[in-house]
Each structure stands twice: as C-alpha cells, then as structure tokens.
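Work through this:
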Amino acid sequence: MTETPKSGFLAAVLSAIFRPLVRHLDKVSHPKYRGNLTVAGLHEKVKVVWQSHGIPHVFANSEHDLFLAQGYLHAQERLWQMDMSRRFLTGRMAEVFGNFSLPWKELSRQFRGRDSADFDYFMRLVGVSRSANASLALLSDADQRRLQAYSEGVNRYIEHCRNKLPWEFRILFYEPEPWRPEDSLTIGKGFAFLLSTALFTRLNMIALSARLHDQPEKLRSLMPFYPENEPTITRAVWDSLKNIWHFVNETLPTSDLHPAGHGSNNWVVAPHRSTSGSAILCNDPHLRLTLPSIWYLMHLKAEPHQSQPDSYEVWGATIPGTPCVQIGHNRRISWGTTAALCDDVELYREKLHRLDSSRYRVGYEWHSFENREEIIRVRWGKEIRRTIRSTRHGPLISDFQTSPSSSEALAFRWTAHDPSQEVAGLYKLNRARDWSEFLDSLSYATAPSLNYVYADNAGNIGYSLAGKIPIRSKAPSLLPVEGWDPSNEWHGYIPFNELPRLYNPQEGVIATANNKVVDSSFPYYLSHFFEPPYRVARIKQLLSQRAQFSTDDMARIQADVISVQATALIEALRLDLQRASEEIINVKSAADRLLGWDGQCDENSVESAIYHVLHQRLLANLLVPVLGEELFSAYVEIFNQCIMPTDQILKNSASSWFRFQSRYDLVARSLREACDQLHDGLGDDFEAWQWGKIHHLILKHSLGRINILKPLLAIGPSPSPGDGTTINMGFYRHSQPYEHTVGASLRIIIDAGHLENSGYILAAGQSGHPTSHHFRDQNKLWQQHLYIQFLDTEQTTSNQPSLSLMPLLKRN
C-alpha cells in the first residue's frame, strides 16, 4: 500500500519520539562492568573480569556462588530474551501482548482467524513446560541446588533493577516474574522443540497423502518412505488436522523456534591429521540468526572445596536462562554438537466411543481421557479457558480444531514429554575428564537427539549419538498409526550403549552435518528426517585434500560456500541447459555461465544468483500445479523433507512428473522466468546479477517488527553468501526466498592440546541492549570469518575491567 503524506508524517513524528526514548531507557539499564555490587545469597566474593567484546571470566570459591553469578550476568545482558523464551514455551505471550490477530503483517493472508491466544494454546498442547515441571522431581538435591542458585542470581538482578528494568519491559509496562528452576528446564526442553522436525514433517506428509491419494507414484516420489501397501488418510483424520496444519505452516515459520533450516556442522581430526600435533574440534550450530544471539560466551571457574576436590572450570557458549556451558571445553576435553534429527514423535489415531466422547479405545477396552484445564490470561481482555485432553500416548493435538471430529482424534507422543535429567548430564559433561566420563554424561540425554563430537588433550577423538530414540516394530510411514492396535506401541528406547559411536578411527577424521549416521546394517530405525548429504560430503572432501590441517585451515573450511547440490543438479540438467542455450537467445548467457560454474556461492557470484532463482522456479513450476500454492509452501518450508525428493525427480527425465510436460520444457520455462526476474530486479547489466544483492541477512530483534524501531533494533541488510546446502550455511525459506534466516549462530575451533589457539565467534554480540557496543561488535568479525580467543586465566586478565560481586554481610 502506498504511504500517504499524512501517514508518512505521523510515522516520522512517532519515530522522532520513540527512538530517542528507547535509547534513553536502554542506556540507563546497561550492565555494570566495573566496581562492586552487593548480591544477596552469595557466600563469598565472586570476581568477574571482562575481556574485549564483553566476555566475562567468572571466578568463584564455590559452585553455588559461581552459578548464582552466572544467573546474574545472564540476566543483566539478556533478561528480556530470557523472559520471552519462557513465555513463548509456556504459552503465556497473550499476557503481555494481548490477544492480537495472527499472523502479523508479514504473514500469509491465508491464515484464518487465529490469534495470540491460539498460539499460547498450541504451546500448552505441545506441553514443553509441563514436561519440564515433571523433570524437576527427578533431579538430585545437588542438581536442584545448582538450578536454585542460578535462579537466585537472576532474581537478584531483577531486584537490583528496581525502576531501571531493560527498556522492553518498561515500554510494555510490565515486570518479569521471579525466575524458577522450572524455567531453566523449560528453556532446555524448548531446544528439543526447536530441533525436532518430526511433528511438522508428519503434518505435511499427511497433507501430501490427502492431496495425492489418487496419484500414488507422485506421492511416493515426494515421500520416498511411503509404504507399498498405501495406507490411506481417512476423512476423519484429515478433517481433524486441517486447522493445526494451517496454523503451524502459516504462523510458526515466522518465530525463532520453528525448526525450518536448523542444523549444524561438527568435525574432529586426530593429532596425526593436525599441524599442531593435537586433536582439533570444530562446530557451527545452525540456528535462526536473531538479536540478541541465542548464545552467550563465558568462562566459569569454581575453586576446589571439600565436597568436590577438583575445580569446576569450563569455557564456551552458554544459553541465557540455563546454567553451565552447552558447547565448549574444559582443561581436559572439548565437545561440539549437531542436531541428530532422530524420529522422536508418533501421531496416534484414537477411536472415540460412539456414545460417550469422553472415552477412547485401547485394544478391546474403553479408557477415559485425562483432562486438565488451562487458563490463558489475556492482557486487556478476558481470560480464556481451554481443556486439554490426553490419552496414554499424549495430548490430543486434534483438539486445536474448532470442531473436532466425533469419530477419531489424534494424539501426539513425543520423547521430550518424558521427565528427564539433561541438566544433570550437562553438568557432568562440563566436568568430564575423559572419554568414559564424557559418555556417562551423554547417557542422561532424552531430547533433543544430538550428534556429539569429542576431542581431548591426550589426542583422542570420538563421536556418539545421544538422546532417547523409540524402538518401533517397523519403520514408520510418518502417517498416523492406529492407537488402539498394540503393535503400534513403542517398545522402550534404544539402549544408550547400542547407539552409534566411534572412537579414534584409523582415518583420523569424524564429521557430522545432520546427515544419516548409520547404514542398513544398523538394527534399529533412527529417522526419515536426516538432512541431505551435501554438507557432510563437502566437509569430508575438504578434509581428504591434505594430510594435516591447522586451525586456520579449519576456519577456511567453515567459510566454504561450494554447493555440491547445485553442481550435481546442473550436471544432471546439462543437456537441457545446452539445448536452451542454443535455442533461446535471451537465456544463452545465463545457461552458459551455469554450465561452466564451479558451485561457488559467494556474495559476488552471478552464477549463484542465476542458479538459485532458477532452482526456485523449477520447484514452483514442478510442484505448484499439482500441490497448490499452500501445500507447496508448506512442503518446501522444511528443507530436509523436500530437497532430496525434488533433486531425484529433476535428475530423472523419465519421471512420472514429466508425463505431460518434458523436463526440457520445465527447464527452459524456469530459466526464462529466472532471467526475467533478475532483469526486473537488478537491471540490464548482466554482471550486476550478484547473489548477495538478492540473498541478504538481517539480524532482527523480537520487537523489530515495529517499523519506527527497525533502524535501532536490526543489523543489516548485508549481502550474504552460501545456501542451505553449503558448509557456511546461508539457508533461506523456499516458501519465501531469498532472505537468509538460518546460519552459523556460533563458530568454534578448539585445538585440544593448545587451548590458547582456540577461537569462538557469535553472529552479533554478547549484549541484548541495543545501545551497548557489545550488541553488535562481533558481527563484522563473524562476516569476515575471524575468531575471538578467550582462554584467559585470572592472572592474564588482571589488567582488564573487573566487577566484584560481594555477599551481603550480616550485621551483629
């Protein structure tokens, strides 16, 4: 819509008022980096030394004081982020923002009548917070004390703020509630939701099956795991799921917790493969690139005490809202993770009693639902009461439907619903000294399933899968199974000692990139959700090109933007592209450039821009006529479910998809459209068709949707390299190209024998305060693939700014 002079004037006035106001409110709530602070609950003084880029080194005399200080430091930089994560995952967003209509302006027009209260209801149906609360009772007293100490630290900061809370709270006129140990567990469980594609992919597979039930050949090509006996989606099942499918595919993609594109790379090389003579470990978790970052870098040290004779000391990336270090190293071992994408979900069709809808069938019996009432409080509105029904398998997600089916319902079973002890395992991981203790710490994992790589200062390297993976009678089709049939039950979980594992392989290299980690000889089903093998293939290709590697070599590998997927697909389409070059004058230059391209997806690449727009048009022209716009957008939203099937279709000119349209016709039409789009968007100069001009990155704050605040609350847009298949990931949603949304949220390179040579970097900065220098001071380094070293000890940081957290002394 064209902005009127009146509306433009009003926006300018509001901007002139609000941006200075936000700057003022933010500056008065900046963290304290020097001097002394009295913090109730500390037993002794805690020293915090700050190095460049706002990275704290925390030295305490006990673990209690260390974790209390960690909670305080997290809160003074990221309290708003922590509170938003807690509210999102517990389904309490409407309490702050009211019951606004979803989606916001940038969302799909097809969204029908949903609002923020629906979003809260959906999160309560998923049950992240409920399982976190149940997990607290499983923890030992020592684990609970650590969580309590961390929570006390957060709460001491909230108390210290008084009328100087971070600006987001004051501009929205509310105060954060006290932090509880359950909140830390909720954020931990939230990562299981963040990294699991199982529910979302299943919903899309059901939609595909309903759409293509009369075209089984095409259905199998898009669902390669579709069973031969072709189970059908009943009308009752599809009717009960339509609304929730619309919801998750039109609302969640805009949130920071949608799994689309999330992944990671990690690898280790043995000492004989490194120039330093030590094992080297690399990791770059691929998550939504946001402001502030998901991660916060810290060095934590607690001196020995009677109950724990050796000190706790660890460096690495922490997650605000939770204690300990999630990815990093101590003085003995280093570790990194990628999402394993194991299948941790089942959808069960539950048969409802014909005369009594409060009961459902189990075998030949009828059981009653477990009911609980949820009260959704709405700011400026009336509270909303919703009843959540659960079967023995889990909550009925089909109750999200306005008018649920009277004959069947759909229950959602998820491993993360199980009470678990990940926080205990994380603490043990931080303290682990060798391979045996490392494995012991991983045995506590439930969800998400993760691929861990390991390196130690003795020169050992290893890999282990961690997490609970269900044992099923057979590999699932991803369609709902009959809940009343006992053969569809899970038979426990794969024993931890039988999960894939590797230690000191002869070749001296281990790498994962969300790929399939086992072959057909593995006796258990793990998943249908693995990422395409392009990234891991490229990593292994680069690691095979020389005998030894330095940390600088590893940085170059993390920066690599060669697309194996693109070069393979172009080779498969070579004859069609050559024909198009010969027959269609206005695409000749574009086709010739693609045929000679090496797959390099840097910001200045003309070929990369041509390829990605061509690929987008190929997908749309192939799938939209059959699936329709809405299902097409949902299918291509989650990258790992669509890229391999569509690659296989495009590589096979005899596919049933080309029965009424030849592959050449598809390629020629798509190439013409791609050239037209680039011409319209970037002009006549062919050399101006550069990838970075259409593929850009904007780091956004959660309140950055407010137009007048965007300049203050965003970094970018900046040209961005890579794509969803390159090591340096430049993922964009194929449903809404080409904005870079997911990438290396963190990069680490650790030389396990020479820790002083190790480096870390975030995409933005440490602080959540937009007027702080540390809000964005790592971004340029991140773009240039540079790293920060922060192994400093208390002695080597003696000349840096320091803050002393002092105990509250009791008066006589």
Observations:
- The domain at 1-338+417-472+491-563+745-812 is CATH 3.60.20.10 (Glutamine Phosphoribosylpyrophosphate, subunit 1, domain 1).
- The radius of gyration is 27 Å.
- The first helix runs from residue 5 to 27.
